[in-house]
Amino acid sequence: MDREISRAFLIIPEIREFLSQNDREALKEIFYAYEPVEVAEILTEFSLKERVLLFSLWNIDFAADVFEKMEKDDQIALMGAIDEARRGKILNELAPDERVDFFEELPEEMVNRFLSIMEREEARDARELMTYDASTAGGRMTTEFASLKEDITVQQALEELRKTAKELEMIYYIYIESRYNHLVGVISLKELIMAEPTTKLSEIMHTKLVTIPIDMDQEHMAAEIAKYDFLALPVVDNRGRMKGIITVDDVIDVIEEEDTEDMYKFGAAGEHVEDYMSMRPTLVARNRITWLLILVVTSFLSGLIMQKFSFALESMIALSFFIPLIMGSGGNAGTQAAMVTVRGLATGEIRMGDIWRVVRKEFLIGAMLGGGLGVLALVRALIFQKSSLLGTTVAFSMIITVTAATCLGAILPLICKRLGIDPAVVSGPLITTVLDIASLLIYFRIAIFLLGLS
Amino acid sequence: MDREISRAFLIIPEIREFLSQNDREALKEIFYAYEPVEVAEILTEFSLKERVLLFSLWNIDFAADVFEKMEKDDQIALMGAIDEARRGKILNELAPDERVDFFEELPEEMVNRFLSIMEREEARDARELMTYDASTAGGRMTTEFASLKEDITVQQALEELRKTAKELEMIYYIYIESRYNHLVGVISLKELIMAEPTTKLSEIMHTKLVTIPIDMDQEHMAAEIAKYDFLALPVVDNRGRMKGIITVDDVIDVIEEEDTEDMYKFGAAGEHVEDYMSMRPTLVARNRITWLLILVVTSFLSGLIMQKFSFALESMIALSFFIPLIMGSGGNAGTQAAMVTVRGLATGEIRMGDIWRVVRKEFLIGAMLGGGLGVLALVRALIFQKSSLLGTTVAFSMIITVTAATCLGAILPLICKRLGIDPAVVSGPLITTVLDIASLLIYFRIAIFLLGLS
């Protein structure tokens, strides 16, 4: 997607002016009118010293909100530079899930130092969240949710909420917990507002709950929330106790992350790292070399096949002219089919039960595509090589290669999925390389048969 | 992402039981306990006749919610089969944005018939929404938002909301409109609940608003909402009048759609169509053939190049054994680099201003990768062909090809973007085919020079 420069960048000259005049009041007011994410963008234009000054002016709520939106590197630099009292206050004020994301970038020793200057309860909370794997529901959830007991009235619930709302990330769903912290129900704030003030929560709450197990992986978790169109889902441990919530904005981040990962796999581009722009070239190269090496070794096989059939090439050098065409068409047709299946499995459009229907369909598609391209190749051979036998060889090879490529491209991701491997590892380059070998074998066999070479 | 079978499927035997007993009360109660999306999933297991019966039992709210979650084909069949009175009621009750999505699948004549049985105001609303392009903010927005005047108090606002909440999709942000429907402010329900009951809305509303222009494309729109972490953003026309809202669940759909489109482009798989499983193979084939034809024509060029240099191949047939290796490595390295830039531009990780840094970086990465693979190719040539000259030829070709491929893969998407073309058209197959030609030229030139062929 396309991101544009923020409207907030327009106020940068004004801010510089206020900074040079040391006009503290104006520096507060001008920033407060903007959203934290915009302020974080603006800050990238200012020096660390200026940032420290600004963070010492702002109220803690606002400072924490802006801090959450900054880049990890800038967060670390800022935390190191501000004075300890303010540092502790900001750490206490951060959203629990954002705080853990920040801590995960730091060496353990520094985390412990930060935990030691935080309020006891917040520090305990952070320690608990850090025990969960970062890519599971536990690692993504926030612990600031609205929770009430079932035996109070709507009126009492609203009063209670009024008191606690400020601390909470999300008050639009209110979770009802039993005496033993078991999640027993949920009410939306909308329902609460519409209900009679004297009704008991237990009478109006929903009790068939959709919950996320605390160890569910983030991809699966995002799919659940996207499916239900809820603003948040509760996270429960294996004893049914409520531990936190996942909000819909976390889901957007997860979907973008997971799609990026899938695309990198499809491009055989190695692991996705967050900071491509600041990463050293040697590290990026190391990231990509593994796949290239695997593919090179497979290409060696293509070379060996050609070597084995060199007698055919020697007796008719024109055979070699069609090798790029046949290998290329197979690779491209296979890549198309693989893309459709990989993405179809990811979005749920294709299910495992559809496996035979997909294969049958792709077989027909492949035969049609192969037929079309085969005729084209035949025409080319007739025009440039004036050999109908060579033309027939190429045309037949094309039909068989493209059909096989399309089927293989479609079926490989399904097989991976059945074996419990992420279907996205079936990348374009992998398909291409595997098909190179297959198409050479097909081509030479047909050539030897039709042209009577030996 | 991974979707699993819903927990709701467990109740299917029970439902069949109730259907055979014609137990209408039980059929209502058992469904009401589940979420609309789950009910829509369950319905796929039942016949059209059974669906019609169920839709006639349920209350209209629930029926409309379930209808919204059904597949387009099933929606059309159901609407055709239920009686007209109920049909009109369900149409009136649908969320405006979902209703327009449904109408867009239908022939104009049928839409007019449906509009004629709807309430006047709902029909007018639907007609207006249909005038906007489906992939813009106007085509995505819903018109059911909470709107109040600025001169009322918090107390009055809450009372007003209590009355209207049932009709609205989203009451967690309340938009403040001037007398001329100009959007002048916004307050969250959270802020409203925390505020003093006697405060005027004008005193507490936010006035620096982030808005979405009604003609903004959906990709850009999704990026804006994802950036701000809001639950919804207001959509305004070019005179600043508020027309609707975009909610965060729309954004999730858009992101998945746009990512799918990008991936299809990268796999050169043609247009993404929603119903792969139900689409005829001929149509899928037609969808994919365009790219294959373009790539085949490019492959012809590779063949012509080989033909031109056939004298070199004739004097040393072993030269041909390395063609798959060199072409393959170039294609793969280029695909990797293209993937990183395409996705980086999409997520905003790489910006247009970074163009030279990216190229410099990819040049270094390419040289390292090419060097590594070149050494490997040299070793292979020494072992199997026992020719150090051929080995040197292959090694040099590898270094130059892979370096050029990496740079080209990285820079092509940036050039496209600058020219106003979607960078995602720089697909793996395109890169591979372009590089086939380049790598053959490089390889033959080096071979002729080093091996003294002519």
UniProtKB/TrEMBL annotation, chains A, B:
InterPro entries: CBS_dom, CBS_dom_sf, Mg_transptr_MgtE_intracell_dom, MgtE_N_sf, MgtE_transporter, SLC41_membr_dom, SLC41_membr_dom_sf. It is a multi-pass membrane protein. Gene3D superfamilies: CBS-domain, MgtE N-terminal domain-like, SLC41 divalent cation transporters, integral membrane domain. It is found in: Cell membrane; Membrane. Residues 141-203, 205-261 form the CBS domain. Its main location: membrane. GO terms for cellular component: plasma membrane. Signal peptide: none annotated. Keywords: CBS domain, Cell membrane, Magnesium, Membrane, Metal-binding, Transmembrane, Transmembrane helix, Transport. The chain crosses the membrane at residues 289-306, 318-342, 363-383, 395-416, 428-453. Pfam families: CBS (PF00571), MgtE (PF01769), MgtE_N (PF03448). The keyword Amino-acid biosynthesis does not apply. One of its GO terms (molecular function) is magnesium ion transmembrane transporter activity. Acts as a magnesium transporter. Belongs to the SLC41A transporter family. PANTHER family: MAGNESIUM TRANSPORTER MGTE. NCBIfam families: mgtE (TIGR00400). Homodimer. This is Magnesium transporter MgtE. The lineage of its organism: Bacteria, Candidatus Aerophobota.
